Amino acid sequence: PDYILCEPATRDPLVKSLRKAIKSFYGENPKESKDFGRIINDRQFKRLSELLSEDCGKIVIGGEIDEKERYISPTVMIDPNPESALIKDEIFGPILPIVEISRIDKAIDYVNARDKPLALYLFSNNKKLINRVVTQTSSGAFIANDTLMHSSVPELPFGGIGPSGSGSYHGYFSFENFSHKKATMIKSLGMEAINNVRYPPYSEGKLKILRRVMDKDVPKPATVGGTLLKLAAAGAAAAGAIYYYSPNTWNQIMGLLRSK
Question: Where, by residue number, does the polypeptide cross the bilayer (predicted)?
């Protein structure tokens, strides 16, 4: 995660629990644990090391680094500088800042004031609170009382929103995301005579015809079949409108049809 939001009274017990969990996972010295990884390259190591400065926040757990091994210990920071890269950027490393928030409405405002997260995790048994956070925030995914597990379910779409990503994949969603829906329309050249109304020279009569056919108050059809029916009706309406509003155009069309 990029940060944790918690109430002031929860912070110290949370830090204590995090310290206990780190020890449970990796022992007294995470550097010696075969289960704790290293930073992937020098550039990322340098970027993450800079986040451990006093300008970014106060380290309460970890903070040890070894440039040769590209090792950064599991690190927890409190009182983070809201203007620092620690808070503004995605971390992608073993550094976790804790931000104190007094009320849930302020927590929601905090999330919404920043780039949309790839995932948002809420720990609560209050169903009304869970529903409130789901509906009042925007994120690539949402999980209550767990982390990461949505990415392991093929039936769920995985992806970000806004700066955290575009589109989603997994199962059928991968097919949808990486497939291109090509619009295809095939019509008869015999209708070209009616199309005369959309070509120059333009006139008030043609404008009236187009306005009648493209009436915005007509409900949009929900299916392709409905669209075709609407187009057929529009064609009939256009023919009637041409006959009524623009007799000269009608005569030109009829002349073209007779010539064929």
Answer: none
Is residue 15 within 8 A of residue 78, CB to CB? The reply is yes
pLDDT tens digit sequence for 9-55: 999 999 999 999 999 999 999 999 999 999 999 999 999 999 998 78
> What are the pLDDT digits (tens) for 187-222?
777 777 777 787 888 888 888 877 877 775 555 555
End-to-end CA distance of the chain: 70
The CA distances from residue 88 to 49, 104, 108, 151, in Å, are 16, 21, 16, 24
- 13 cis-preceded (ω within 30 degrees of 0): no
Helix pair angle (127-136, 104-112), 10° resolution: 20
**Coil vs helix vs strand at 133:** helix
Q: Within a 10 A sphere around the Cβ of 118, how many other Cβ atoms?
A: 20
Dist. CA 43–CA 53, nearest whole Å:
17
Domain boundaries, the chain: 4-166, 189-259
Residue 235's nearest CA partner among 208, 219, 212 is 212
Is this model's pTM higher than 0.85 or not? no
What tokens appear for 163 in the block? Answer: 């700066």
Q: Which two tokens stand for residue 32?
A: 């010696």
Q: What is the DSSP letter of 179?
A: -
Other CB atoms within 10 A of residue 40 CB: 11
Q: Is 179 exposed, middle or buried (0-12, 13-18, 19+ CB in 10 A)?
A: exposed
